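User: Structure please.
Assistant: Input sequence and predicted structure:
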Amino acid sequence: MLTRYLVFAVVVFLAVVFAGLSAWQAWFLAGFFPLLALSLLGVWDVVQQRHAILRNYPVIGHMRWLFEGIRPEIRQYLIESERDEEPFSRAERSLVYQRAKGVEDKRPFGTRVDVYGAGYAWLTHSMAPKPPNHHDFRVKIGGAACTRPYDASVYNISAMSFGALSGNAILALNTGARLGGFAHDTGEGSISRYHRQGGGDLIWELGSGYFGCRDAGGCFDPARFAEQAQAEQVKMIEVKLSQGAKPGHGGMLPAAKITPEIAEARGIPMGKDCISPAGHSAFSSPTQFMHFLQDLREGSGGKPVGFKLCIGHRWEFMAIVKAMLETGIRPDFIVVDGKEGGTGAAPVEFADHLGTPLAEGLTFVRNTLIGAGLRDDIKLGAGGKLVSAFDLVFAHALGADWCNSARGFMFSIGCIQAQSCHTNRCPTGVATQDPLRQRALVVEDKAQRVARFHRNTLEALAEIVGAAGFDRPDELQPRHIMVRQKNGETLSAEEAYWTLEAGALTNGGCDRADYTRFWNMARAESFQPLPA
């Protein structure tokens, strides 16, 4: 706290000193008036409600906008000297800020990306474009066994737990979701008082710690689950098998960081480290997992139930699909999390080199479901750096029915990517439990920005889809996306991310040797593979 307010305190102190000295020598007034102006500016910074940085760093916080005005070459030098790589470019953050604030997002002087480089992708447009007639695109989630399907927006807030984010951040996000009519994933930290206070639709994520529905030993408690899952605010149940940013990795919340509010939400004791195991204890095989999902559907009163994963061993996902076929139990949805997904606490090697990127993971899941004849029964969600309207277009073209975003919505509530999430010293009050730091985040203002970012992004999505000659994003197909390869060749996504024939895996007609090999290795009764 002293560090944050030190400059402000020094300015006020010097203003007082110069005021006293001016009674002795009038020329001290020349210094007093500028210091008085800075002191009044600092007071205004503390009480204003638009800029979290200024509330936490009065006076000196204005330097941020000064440095943002430095020429791009110098700014890039400063960025590169501080860190090897930023998870998001400044251009991407600027796009979110503009849409969240309702600022004009048109850009003069052409594109902001390298259109000649390998991996560049674009949507082919139509000579008969359609004017958008609405932007509130929805997808109905819930299969034949679901009695309470959910009409979801195609763009929702991805999983971020209370504890990782501050109470004010959660409240702003959830209030924004309510204002905008879209869903907010709780993250595995369970449902907090701030989620309930916001009143927005919730996707309750269950991780390996079963927070909010666990017994004293940390195992799943069906009675506690049903008590929370049947709340009207909870719209869907999502079991987290793995997370894109750190797949196969558990976690620990040290006892020193557990507040009474976190303990209340998670159902854990104070004064004891909170462990999130790497794997689940409620099931140990694909078949058991399907029955666990069925138990969750019944315990929730018939709400949509599904799971989230980052693709790892391919035979393991295929084993889950085989379990669907053998048990007759279908999840209502699957969320594919790309390794691009972010977190405030992942080992560098996990974040950089573990897990499958979204495009490849989504293609594999889509193809496996098509090859097993299950694609029409299960909705697909996608997550992993999906911030712009084109990101949503790309994911929809590859098979997603809806998309989730975490950092995009974090930017909308003021995150400046300071990369201090794990230090409890977030400068904008987003990723901290420090009550003084998080007071800088004004919920009423930021909730409006969350809703505005969602609305403006979907309006842009509607315009892009219309430019391609369609009314809805679910009409997009892989053939509508072009991707430049490393050798300079241009392929449609239909060629780069091809599609299996319907039923190819179950009827033995698959012409892809790798898919056939993994399918033959998979078995419903175990995650362990058969010999290749």
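The CA atoms of residues 283 and 289 lie 5 Å apart.
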